[in-house]
Write a structure and sequence with these properties.
mainly alpha, Serine Threonine Protein Phosphatase 5, Tetratricopeptide repeat, 73% helix
Length: 226
């Protein structure tokens, strides 16, 4: 089931971009690959990496494996270059998310990227302990990591709850992930058999972002089953 969830599933800006983070999120919510591709070519630095990351996820949902791999590699290269110039918690967290998706798509990359992911998240936490996107990526990482290797559903819930609390803090620039944190916490609850609580979290995600397609899909999926 977790593989299916992936299929159905964060800075520096040197010049004025065609799109900001909200624009990229809006395109991802509507699965507008053409718009995401345009943003990825006409933005720079963190925003460009984020556009490639969302393009990779959207392409994966659509079954376009080459586009998924190419976009992930572009996001990775952009973020590694950014971090070579200056370390920021948001760039570290987003690169950790990219590495995690690389592993999920190809388990053979676990040996290469697993330790890098853990190191990035530790460094990001040290830089900005109150960054909600760092906690969100920790939640995603824990969801896919067996408890014997330091992950598990309880940790996924805990990190997602931490992220949700931190999203109440003021945010001016990089602000994505609030609805996503509720969605991942709901997924962890669903895996543990608490569907009612999971659906409450998915509804909370929609309350935050009425266009958040993933939470809408998950709720509609349960409505069909009932």
């Amino acid at each position: 089931m977790k593989t299916l969830l992936l299929i159905t599933s964060l800075s520096l800006v040197s010049y004025h971009s065609l799109a900001d983070i909200k624009d990229i999120d809006d395109a991802a919510n509507t699965m507008n690959m053409n718009q995401l591709a345009q943003y990825s070519q006409n933005t720079n630095d963190y925003e460009q990496a984020y556009a490639f990351y969302r393009l990779a996820i959207t392409a994966n949902i659509s079954g376009q494996r080459k586009q998924t791999a190419d976009s992930l590699n572009q996001a990775q290269n952009t973020l590694e270059n950014l971090l070579g110039a200056q370390a920021t918690a948001d760039s570290q967290a987003l690169l950790a998310a990219v590495y995690g998706m690389q592993i999920a798509l190809d388990n053979n990359k676990g040996a290469e990227y697993g330790m890098k992911t853990a190191t990035l998240l530790q460094q990001a936490t040290e830089l900005e302990p109150n960054n909600p996107r760092v906690s969100l990526v920790k939640a995603i990482n824990a969801f896919y990591t067996p408890s014997v290797f330091g992950g598990g559903l309880e940790k996924a819930q805990s990190f997602a709850s931490q992220a949700i609390t931190l999203y109440d803090l003021p945010c001016d620039t990089i602000c994505w992930g609030h609805a996503e944190a509720y969605t991942w916490r709901g997924l962890a609850k669903q895996e543990q058999g608490d569907l009612t609580a999971a659906m409450d979290d998915w509804q909370a995600a929609i309350d935050i972002d009425p266009q958040y397609a993933w939470a809408i899909f998950l709720l509609n999926q349960q409505a069909v089953k009932q």
